[in-house]
């Protein structure tokens, strides 16, 4: 990556700079962000945080409960708050909820302060998991496959902006984590 000799805030961060930041896994629901973030954190000797878990801990309510009560905006506000805190803490590995970057403030902060890694999944993989995803993710309940596909496509624009994209082979999680780690190390 080319490096500027003058101070210029608009230049792209170098790989070394990115590695000194918190590592944020982004991607669609069911991509395996939490598992991969946990395994990556263990390999790097960093702490792992999952934003969904932190939101639930903080408000004492489940995500399905918040969504069922029509409080998606409360969920996004709490998500924004926990992510902002994680970005200024000791660099950890963070798994973000699949829609966290729909919030513009969260998106800007994450791209500015984290090493953003997109765990990419194909629509075919998502489709194969749809029955499970539709049961466990409130956002997908009562939606048609076409609507979910549209959501998937719409979110790709943000996912594609990640500093790094990895598509992990399905199956052996430990091998997948080794693969992610070697990609991270460049
Ligand atoms: C959401 C994804 C979920 C969770 C919430 C909303 C989304 O996290 O944050 O149900 O908007 O994509 P996962 O991506 O971990 O499933």
Total strands = 5
What structural class do helix, strand and pairing data support?
A: alpha/beta
CATH topology: Rossmann fold
For this structure, what is the CATH homologous superfamily? P-loop containing nucleotide triphosphate hydrolases
Poorly predicted runs: 1-8
**Highest CATH level, the class:** Alpha Beta
Q: Between the first and last Cα atoms, what is the distance in angstroms?
A: 11 Å
Radius of gyration: 17 Å
**Bound small molecules, which ones?**
shikimate-3-phosphate
Question: Largest sheet, order of strands side by side?
Answer: 2-3-1-4-5
Shape: globular
Mean pLDDT: 92
CATH architecture: 3-Layer(aba) Sandwich
Largest sheet: 5 strands, parallel
Task: Looking at this protein, list some descriptive labels.
disordered N terminus; binds shikimate-3-phosphate; Rossmann fold; 5-stranded parallel sheet; globular; 5 strands
Question: Would you write up a description of this structure?
Answer:
The protein is of the alpha/beta class. The chain is built from nine helices and five strands. The chain has a single domain, classed as Rossmann fold. 54% of the residues lie in helices and 10% in strands.
Please provide a brief summary of the model:
With 186 residues, the protein is an alpha/beta fold. The chain has helices at 15-19, 33-44, 51-59, 63-68, 72-88, 104-113, 123-136, 145-159, 173-185; strands spanning 23-26, 48-50, 93-95, 115-119, 164-166.
SSE topology sketch:
Elements: H1 15-19, E1 23-26, H2 33-44, E2 48-50, H3 51-59, H4 63-68, H5 72-88, E3 93-95, H6 104-113, E4 115-119, H7 123-136, H8 145-159, E5 164-166, H9 173-185
Parallel strand pairs: 1-3, 1-4, 2-3, 4-5
Shikimate-3-phosphate is lined by residues 29, 33, 52, 63, 97-99, 137-139.
């Amino acid at each position: 990556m080319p490096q500027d000799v003058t101070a210029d805030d608009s230049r792209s961060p170098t790989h070394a700079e990115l590695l000194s930041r918190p590592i944020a896994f982004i991607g669609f629901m069911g991509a395996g962000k939490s598992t991969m973030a946990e395994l990556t954190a263990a390999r790097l000797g960093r702490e792992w945080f999952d934003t969904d878990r932190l939101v639930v801990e903080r408000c004492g309510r489940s995500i399905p409960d918040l969504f069922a009560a029509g409080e998606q905006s409360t969920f996004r506000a709490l998500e924004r708050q926990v992510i902002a805190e994680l970005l200024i803490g000791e660099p950890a590995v963070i798994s973000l909820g699949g829609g966290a970057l729909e919030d513009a403030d969260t998106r800007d902060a994450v791209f500015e302060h984290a090493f953003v890694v997109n765990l990419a999944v194909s629509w075919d993989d998502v489709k194969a998991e749809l029955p499970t995803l539709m049961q466990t993710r409130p956002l997908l309940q009562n939606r048609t496959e076409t609507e979910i596909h549209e959501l998937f496509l719409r979110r790709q624009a943000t996912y594609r902006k990640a500093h790094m994209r990895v598509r992990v082979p399905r199956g052996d999680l430990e091998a997948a984590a080794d693969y992610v780690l070697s990609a991270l190390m460049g």
